[in-house]
Specification:
alpha+beta; 3-stranded antiparallel β-sheet
Length: 66
Amino acid sequence: MNLTSKDMATIEQALNDAIRNCNGYRNSLNYREVLNKLQNLPRNDNQQCYEVTSLDGLRYDYDDSK
């Protein structure tokens, strides 16, 4: 999944708002952990986007048609 700089700014703002307004230390830590991960994502300068990849190598294909 590729995220644009605008997408990243929106997500970072939402996480910062959640950190400031959450009830509970555990929630605050969880939001900060995700924010740190997002801020450390590799940036693809050629396409002006951030590459978000799944590191587990698993892919799910749900086919509900029968």
